[in-house]
Every structure is written in C-alpha cells, then in structure tokens.
Amino acid sequence: MPKSSTPTKKADAAAPAARLSVRKTYKLFIGGAFPRSESGRTYLVNGDNVALASRKDVRDAVLAARKAQPKWAGATAYNRGQILYRAAEMLEGRRSEFIAIGTPAAEVDAATDRLVWYAGWSDKIAQVLGAANPVAGPYFNLSAPEPTGVVGVVAPASLLGLVSVIAPAIVTGNTVVVLAPGPQAAVTLAEVLATADLPGGVVNILTGHPAETAPWLAAHDDVNALDLTSVADHSLATDLERAAAGNLKRVLRPPVNPADFAADPGLRPMTAFLETKTVWHPKGF
Amino acid sequence: MTATLLPTSDLRSVLHGLPGVDKVGVEARAAALGTRSIKTTAKAAAIDLAIRMVDLTTLEGSDTPGKVRALAAKAMRPDPADPTCPAVGAVCVYPALVPEAFSVLNGSGVHLASVATAFPAGQAPLAVKLADTRDAVAAGADEIDMVISRGAFLSGRYDDVFAEIVAVKEAAGPAHLKVILETGELGTYDNVRRASWLAMLAGADFIKTSTGKVPVAATLPVTLVMLEAVRDFRAQTGRQVGVKPAGGIRTTKDAIKYLVLINETVGDDWLHPDWFRFGASSLLNDLLMQRTKLTTGHYAGPDYFTLD
Amino acid sequence: MPLFEYAPAPESRSIVDLAPSYGLFIDGSFEPSKEGGVFKTVNPASEEVLAEVAAAGPEDVDRAVAAARRAFPSWSALPGAERAKYLFRIARIIQERSRELAVLESLDNGKPIKESRDVDLPLVAAHFFYYAGWADKLSYAGFGSTPLGVAAQVIPWNFPLLMLAWKIAPALATGNTVVLKPAETTPLSALFFADICQQAELPPGVVNIITGAGETGRLLVEHPDVNKVAFTGSTEVGRQIARSVAGTRKRLTLELGGKAANIVFDDAPIDQAVEGIVNGIFFNQGHVCCAGSRLLVQESAYDAVLSSLQRRMATLRVGDPLDKNTDIGAINSAAQLERIHSLTEIGSAEGAERWSPPCDLPAQGFWFAPTIFTGVTQAHRIAREEIFGPVLSVLTFRTPDEAIEKANNTPYGLSAGIWTEKGSLILAMADKLRAGVVWANTFNKFDPTSPFGGYKESGYGREGGRHGLEAYLA
Lengths: 285, 308, 474
Prior knowledge:
The structure holds three protein chains of three kinds.
Chain A: E1 42-45, E2 48-51, H1 55-74, H2 77-93, H3 95-100, H4 105-119, H5 125-129, E3 131-132, E4 139-147, E5 150-154, H6 159-171, E6 175-180, H7 183-194, E7 203-207, H8 210-219, E8 225-227, H9 234-244, E9 250-252, H10 268-271, E10 274-282
Parallel strand pairs in A: 5-6, 5-8, 6-7, 8-9
Antiparallel strand pairs in A: 1-2, 3-4, 4-10
Helix pairs in contact in A: 1-8, 2-4, 4-6, 8-9
Chain B: H1 11-16, H2 23-33, H3 40-53, E1 54-57, H4 65-76, E2 90-93, H5 98-105, E3 111-115, H6 126-138, E4 143-147, H7 150-154, H8 158-172, E5 176-180, H9 189-201, E6 206-208, H10 220-237, E7 242-244, H11 252-265, E8 278-280, H12 283-296
Parallel strand pairs in B: 1-2, 1-8, 2-3, 3-4, 4-5, 5-6, 6-7
Helix pairs in contact in B: 2-10, 3-11, 3-12, 4-5, 6-8, 9-10, 10-11
Chain C: E1 21-22, E2 24-26, E3 29-31, E4 38-43, E5 48-54, H1 58-77, H2 80-96, H3 98-109, H4 113-132, E6 150-154, H5 160-173, E7 177-181, H6 188-199, E8 207-209, H7 214-221, E9 228-232, H8 235-245, E10 251-255, E11 261-264, H9 270-282, E12 294-298, H10 302-313, H11 334-349, E13 353-355, E14 371-374, H12 381-384, E15 391-397, H13 400-408, E16 415-419, H14 423-432, E17 437-440, E18 459-460
Parallel strand pairs in C: 1-5, 6-7, 6-9, 7-8, 9-10, 11-12, 11-16, 12-15, 14-15, 16-17
Antiparallel strand pairs in C: 2-3, 4-5, 10-18, 13-14
Helix pairs in contact in C: 2-4, 3-4, 4-5, 9-10
C-alpha cells in the first residue's frame, strides 16, 4: 500500500495503447554509482519510489567524497574546466528530458549556461584571488587559493539552484555531498554528471528529507564546510550552524531573502569554500 | 669483482654531493622517451631482446616444486610452437625452491637467480641473511637478489647499509649480486640516486628497483635515474653495473619503452641481458603474443600461450 | 651500426584533405584576391608544393577591414556568455581535429609531428578554452570591458596556429573583430582555422584571414580603420610598425626577437639541466623567439655540462618531420637556412669553436644540424644576434652577479633560464634578470594562463593570462 496520499501514476493518456513505457528508478548517487539507500527506504514522489537517504548513506557519501577529493584537487584547473564544460554538453543534450520532468526551458538553458560560466572559472579564480604580496623584506611572498575539502550542501530543488550550488564548490577542487529535497531534477542531474567524465565521488547526491539527514552532515567531523543557502527554516539553519561549529566548518549561511539563482552569483559561492595559502621564501645569494 | 671502495667515513659526503634530480624534469624526460614509436623490424628485434632479458619470477608463499618446474620449463622454451623464440634470461625464485629449479635449468644457459637476505622486508639479523645467501648459492643459484635495509638507509646509516652489501657480496662468492633498492620506499629521486651509488660503491653487480611486494614498483623515471647512475659510475670508476626494473611491467609496450630508455641514456653497452633484466612474470606472455602478431599479422589471444 | 635502430614510423598524411588552392577568408567565405595575385607554399622538408594561396592586395585588405568593421557592433554587443560559447565551440572543434591540424602544421612548417601533436595543438585548443572563459567575466579582470574595435594581427611562421590562437582568442573574447595575416611560408593552418570558424557558425566578418607577404602585412597594420595592431615577428619590422602607428590612436603590442641566457650553476640538477639546454635551443629547430640561445655555464661546472650536453646531442634525430621519432625537423625556408649558414660562418670566422654531432641530412629540403659554439664571448656576433636556428653559443661565468650582468647585456629581454637547486638563488636571480619570462629548472614552458612577453627590444605587451586581456580593452 503506498504510504503517500498522492495519486499513483496515471496511465499514458495520449500515447497509443501499443507501447508500455519503462519507468526510471530514482536512486542515490554515491561514488559515481547509483545505489539504493542502505536503509532500504523509499518515499513516493509523483507515483515514483525514490530512495530515502539515511544517516548511514550520509556517512558513506562523506567517505566517497573524501576519497575522491585529493585527486580532484590535484587535477589541473584546465582538466576540471573541461569536465564542467562536458557536463554542460551533457545537460544541453538532455534539454527535452528536463523539460518533460517540469523544468522550464529557460531554466534548463540558464543552468547549462551557468555550468559553462563556472567551467571558465576553473583556471582563472587563482588569478583573481591570488596575489604576489610586496612584503617589506627580501622575500618572495605568494598567496593562492586552495579548496577547503569536502563540502556538505543542503540544496534547493530546482535544476538551476542545484547547478548554482554544486558547480562553484567543485570547480575549485572541492568534493560535495548534496542533500536534495526534490529528486527528479537532482537524479537526472546526477546522470548528467555521471556521463561527463566526472570522477566518482566528486559529487554525491542524496535524495530524501534534508531535515532528517542535514544534522548528521552538519555534525560530521570529516566535512570541512557547509552550504546552507537553501535552508529556509531559520531555526533549522541555526541548529545546523551550531552543529557545524563542532569542527569549525566554514558555513555559508542562508541569505536574508530567498536566493535568486537567476542573478549573477558573484565570487562568494566559490570563495566560501576556498582557503588562502601564503608562502614565503627568501631571495638572495 | 671487488668493490671500488672509498673510506666509509666519506660515504655521506659522496652521496650527498651527487647532483640532484629534478622530479618534474626527470618525469618529463621519461615520458618523452615513452613517445618513441618502435615499429616493424625494430619492434621484432626489441621483442626478442626483451624476452632474453626477462627474469621469469615466482615469489609466492604458495610456490611448490611443481610450480617451479613448470616455470623453469617455460623459461627455457617460452613458445613451444616456435623454436626460433629465444629463452629468457633467468628464473627467479625463493631459496627453498632453488634445488628444484636447478635440477631443470642446469646446463640450459638460463641463469638461476635466488632472492635472499630475508626477502622482501630484510628485517632479520645479518647472520640469517648471510646464511640465506650461502645456502642459495650452494643449492645452485648463480645470481643473488638481495634487499638493502631501507630503515637504515632512510635514517642515514649509510655505513651500515654499505657494510651489509659488502658482507652479502662476500657470502655470494661467485654468484652475481643484484641489490634491490626498493625504490618505492625511498621517497625521492635524490634518494634513488644515492642508494644506487651506495650499492655500486659496495660492489653490486646489478642494481634493482623493487621486490614487487610493495605498492609502488618499477617506473620509467626511477629506472632512468638508475641508468644515469650506472652511466656516471662507469665514467668515474671504469666498472659497469647492470640495471633491473622489477614489478609492474606487464606489457610489450612498457618493455619497449624501457629499451628506448637504455638506448638513449646509456647506449649499446647495456642493451644485453648481461647488463639489463626485467623482473616480471606476466610480461612474457604479452611479449609472446606481440611476437606472434608480428609473424602472423593478426592479434593473438591468451589461449594460444602456455600458463607456466 | 647501433644495436637498436628505430624503423621509420611515419604519421599518415591522408588525414589532411589539401585543396590545390585557397582564397582569402573575408566576411565568412573564401574568395580570390581582387588583384588576382597568388603564391605557392612548400613543404620545407621536401620542397614539394603544397598549395597555391591568394596574395592579398590593397583592395583585399580594405574589404577585410571593412568586413571586420561591419561585424564589430553586433559582435561586441553580444552578451559575453554568448561570445564565450562560440569560442568554446571553436576550442572543441580544434580538439576533435587536432591530429589533422598537427599533420598540416608539420607539412607546412617543417616541425616534427611529435611537437605539433604534443605541444602546438594542445596549447592551441587550451588557449581558446582559456579565453572563452574570460568573455563573460571581464568585470573581474580589472581592465574594464570595452573592446577596441578592429584588430590587425600579423603572425610569424614558427608556430603558425599557436600564434594565431594567441592573437585571436583574447581579441574575440573581449569583443573585438579581427583581420589576421599568417606568415607567407605558413598560410595553411590559418586557412583551415577559417574553415573551423565556418564549422562553428561564427558570425561572418568576426574573423578574417588574408594571406600574403610582407607588403600585405604592412598594408594591414597601416590601414587607417584599424584600432589595434598586434605583431609577432622580427624586431626590425616591429620598429617599423611602431613608427607607423605614431600619432595615430592605434594601440600596439609587439612580441619580437630574443637572445635568451640559459644560466646553469654548478649545483644544478645536471641531467635535467642538459635536457633544459637541449630543449631550450633545439625545440622547434631553434625557431623560437624565447629560445635559450646563449648557454651561460658556471666555469666550475663547464666540463661536466659540456660533456653531458655533447653526449645528449648525439641522440637527437634530424629528419622527416612526419616521422614520429624525429626530434629536429626542417628549417622553414631557404631564406632562413641562408641566414643561419651566414651567421654560423661568422661565428667560426670570429674564432668560436664549432661542434655538431654526426648527422645524416636529407638531400632535398632545408636542413641544419644541431650545433654548439664554445669559446664564445659577449663580443662575438653569435652571442648578440638572433640566429633563429638550432645553434647554441656557450659562454662561462664565475659568480651570480657576473651571470646577471652578461644575461642582461643585450638589447633584448624576452626570456631567461636558471638552473640550480637553491631556491633563494633562483628568486634573487629572477628579480634581477631583465626578461619578461623567467624559467627556473625548466625551459620553453607555455600555458594559456601564463603571461608571455618581453622587456626592451623584445617588445611590449603580454599575451596569455589575465594580463593578456589588457591589450584588447579600452
């Protein structure tokens, strides 16, 4: 018996009776693969059973993200940019699929263009944020940005929103664990990323109820930063920020007004998850 | 045969006075040499040379006389269907299996190498390592592959490492001594260069990269550094030392890259099984498959070659 | 006869579909010169004629500039994100057609396929990828976001397609339109690039390619309706161009010659330093403006470095550019070969000692064996004049100060190399060397993110990196 009160799938109304469709199964995206929740739970969305992520899935996703992070950060910026551009190619190719699941066409285009925008930041952010510092002494001194590590993201449901929180975190070499409330766009986006030569574990997407899984992510000692941009509930956001303080995660708080993902993102979504390393070396012979 | 000895109190300044190795530069050079395109007649000659350079190896806890007999038979006649196929350079086994291997190989021209000195970790008293060596030689090994004490090397006790090699060389008597540096544990190319020189100064006949028992084994850049070392050592002392990369060399393509490395770093004098060996097991079948492809014109499959 | 002879390993030419003739690429399509001029381009390795190309005359230059001018308003008004996507398309097509373009480049230029395949083409694609990403981020670059208008770009024959990428990518990303003239001896890859512009559906007139010789270039840079001139080539022509733009509002960047010092200290990682010396002067047959053409070796390391260098040079393979094992290809033209011969004869005449490893040079084509001159001092012409060939002059020094003095003692200032294991020495030398690019423990390394350009008579302006945008913005 379905647990949800939403109606079961309607029969294909307009199509001729000849061919039965093959329905997609909505699973989690962890380490480059699509496993079910270790809890075996699902929840109903528009008649589909969607994997319902548990705290153990969060744990597994963090492990996958951590494992993938050094190699992703160690790839050349050029390589990361190429991969994000390929993701844009894949997303463009699935335009009609996203439209069919309810994303407005203009939003799909905006999401694709946003991926292209971020692809182009990969090998430029260091030139904008970095600096040779003119210290008062015979020293070479250089500041350069570095990715902070594993970023936990409480994501919005829309495609443009998802791209706008995932891309800025990973383009600089972080890996992410994404808690996604609305499954269809999230899982289809996971398929886009899985076919874009993105190494497994760089992006991990857990469908389910963020209110249940976010506290585990926020308290996890092996997560370096937390993106709370899309947490509308102020008291939940406060609890998560408090939990994050346990290992002093870098926290990106929700904005005062709900985020407008169509607007120019600026640099903040990237700088929030970057450290700055400054190196000194004497000059002389 | 006697080592070119320097007063050991100078060992540290000798080793630390060697020119440094730039990692990015040496890896780029090795990669560039790896783009050489070796075709047709050159490839056929390279494959035959590579086969003759293989030290066909089995070093497992589960080795038995039966396994070793089969390996030795394959070493002498790698391709039963083709008598023009040369034999390999040597068979390499644990000391306990030397008698069995000897009974098959004796008089065949294929050398018999035994690992010794508490291979692979080398964590045993010196007396045990020397006994290990003597017994292997007595049982018929004409080559000994020893391990250096990495712990002593990495903590800077170069004199201890040196003394051990000298002692094992003496215990090995007439057998040729290969000294395994375990480059995967040495951490830097500078250390690989220093360990190479240390081994050669102590009397090594061959320097070898790896035991094959740790995750990182032979690589092209590490072998390049070792080839530069043997080249410079001969220029300085007049004595020629061989090089053996071991572990992780599985394809003909890889093997040919190593031959290119030799060719363009040290030249003809090392392009011979007396001065270069591959420590390998599955490489042989890939060499045989490629050899067959060159003669028949089509790709072969594993069913057509014997397991050892 | 060496034990290990590499058999011939030819790269196939069949991937390149060469037409017998090509027109000028103006306003999105190919058309013959209005004045009817044509000339031939040859393969310098065999002297075989590859194709006939149009020689642009004054009317053609006018039409090309007019086409670029017409295309400018709508191109510059496009949102940066849209311009970016055109450039990304071009970058992608270049990647997909890399092998074809590499073979073509080796045929027309003479450089080894190993280099055009592994160095030139990857950098070409990377340049377009890099600048594509700036098109919609100019507000972060620090130079404003107003393009200049029509850019007149004249490029040399040593890295034809790469020099084209260095010019066109930043110009288009910032919203300018271009008229580009490739070198007379290497027009083909630019014409294939025009085909790629069509494939990418780039709006007509945004890129125009006009082939021709020095006179075409002069007409182009002196055209009254261009806003920006970018030139890479000889210092002599650069000077003429600088004179011609005086008093106009045309912005100018120049990337000219060099006579770089490659400085090797006695604590250098010797084997890698020798690779760096070889790469510095023999890469691309020494046809490199930033070539390490003067080896400054510390006297205490002289014997070790020289003997290693000579041993290493003996493994260099000179021959058919399309053979995958060739290290040194053909000299680009008879004229350039003549210049190299003449300067090396002067070197011997002035008393320097000449050495080359034994080398079998093919009978047809233009060839020069890798050569070193020892016993060279600052007073020798071969230590001062750019030879632009595989010829290295070897000088010595005793102290870092002396190395700096000698390195800087030249009207040029494009690049320099430093080889030592000591970090503070590297950084202090880098501070004092008057060169736009300093390579420490490496040489001839290029990247689209890394600004490139010279001091003094090696030119002004930078190409590559965020800094490379400045030249194309108001």
